[in-house]
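User: Last request for today: this protein with FE-MO-S cluster, please.
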Amino acid sequence: MSKERDLLLDKYSSRIFKNRKSHITQLEFGENPDEITANTRAIPGIITARGCCYAGCKGVVVGPVKDSVVITHGPIGCAFYSWGTRRNKAKSSYEGEPNFVPYSFCTDMRASDIVFGGEKKLEEGIDEIMQLFHPKCIFICSTCPIGLIGDDVQAVAKRVEEKYGITAIGYSCEGYKGVSQSAGHHIANNGLMRYVIGKGEEAPKGKYSVNILGEYNIGGDGWEQERILKKIGYEVVSVFTGDGSYETLKNSHLADLNLVMCHRSINYIAEMMKTKYGVDWLKVNFIGVGATSKSLRMMAKYFDDPELTRRTEEVIAEELAEINEDMEFYKSKLKGKTAGIFVGGSRSHHYQMLLRDFGMETTIAGYEFAHRDDYEGREIIPQIKADADSKNIEEISVERAVGYDDRYTVEELVSLRSQGVELDTYDGMIKDMKEGYMVVDDYNMFETDQLIDQYKPDIFFSGIKDKYAIQHGGVVSRQMHSYDYSGPYAGFRGAVNFGRDVTMSLYTNAWSLVKPPWKTMPMLEGTLGGAG
Ligand code: CFM
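Assistant: Here's the final one, the structure of the complex with FE-MO-S cluster:
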């Protein structure tokens, strides 16, 4: 076991040590591949940064669908605290297109509803929504008490569909399901696959069409990606689900190719669409200049058209010319600096590529709720043992739909893969890191503090709450869920924004003026997790 990892785990009692040791790995790249334990329950009492299943379904996956109403079935707090806290940006794509993203709808369950049942209240709430807003699609998201009292949200959804002739999906995404928001992603994906994808018949008009899966338009990232793709000549059929709409998601099965940005939150749909409609998926990363160029080139190879390849190179050259001077300037400021990063399930990998564009290395990285495949690559999936928590989340299986063929034959796919087109696969984060670097699953604040002390990164890309604790310790942090209200950071122009923000953060002298009390006052010593 390596030194820094030893030092970190040493502080734990044996009970906590037993749990945490397999969630923390210092990369060795030895004979056996580096392994990590992930997607298991957090230790009670350890301050995890994770969210809940409802957050993953309502907040992350279905929340950004702008022309659909998302109703929280539960007490008002769940609706209030998930109202606008994920920074989904959305605007109407055509005159008259509804945009319900700024709203929060809730059944406001009270004590008497918990005792006597809330289905009636839910139906009345939906009647009111129909009178006022006339959406074509409604997502009902259940919070913890709904599962406990047994309200049948699927039956309500069915009645609503019959009454109004719209799509209504009842989600049993109670907060306690699974071990994190990851369960909510899966549940949301299942519903979209069952009731939305494949419902439309509008075929794409462009020569080459794509969906962007797992892109949520935080800070306008999705818009920057669409700008580049459209400039090359691609038709973007739908985006799951940032600035997305029910009207486009239902036609998504007719696109030529699925691009997967956030593997963690959407890989279920990518796989199911491949099986059911023969749409290949390509793991892309539009975070970082090198990563964006690589992704665009893989796409061009997939379609294998000289004109598309020429246009791709032309656009890459144009975009690089536009940002080159700025990138060089920020690189001169950032080269040689180091970073730590801890975000949900994708960004801790994606942003390492962007940091490398500036000559920065990420020595500590972790995810809140990723699965082993996000760390170690999809080839690990058969080895992942299902536990009671993961078995609790429905796996749906789909079959090839009549009239849909694979886009390419198996031989053609093998040939494309051998040319570096990363189809239907994902290598995970670890392979892009270096020996000695630390990878931690489900970080807690104690580990963050300790690792910052040991590795002394110049900047730490953090979550929402830990940001302030890190800064109190004199290390600058940029919050990577909402970008501290900056962005976009994706694509070519986004890289410049990121370089500017990181440079500003690092070159302010504010952090050297911070003297936290623990640097000047005696520390109380204690052990974590009780005796033994
Ligand atoms: Fe995917 Fe996300 Fe992420 Fe995620 Fe999230 Fe997010 Fe995230 Mo916050 S879908 S896993 S559940 S890339 S909200 S846009 S920033 S934790 S790393």
